[in-house]
Amino acid sequence: MDDNVLDAKGLIRESYQIEEITDSQCRSIFLDWALTLPADMDTKVAIKALLKNVSPEQKNHPMTAILEQGLVQMIRPKRRGGWRSRDRS
Prior knowledge:
- It is built from 6 helices and no strands.
- With about 90 residues, the protein is mainly α.
- Helix 3 packs across helix 5 and helix 4 runs antiparallel to helix 5.
């Protein structure tokens, strides 16, 4: 899979360059990355391809942990709220 398609904005690649990046920052970057994927791309396949490119010295990086969590915890967002949930008639 082409890295330009997987990480078009370079978000994941750049996250590995940031010194002392936190888990929270990595989660935010991951979410932004996931939202920019083409609609027809399988997110798990994309994550696996990204993890395949992680070098041994990056195995303990917070972004690697977030990507691995993304493989396990792919939860589709649920709609919360809206007028139906507030309508108490």
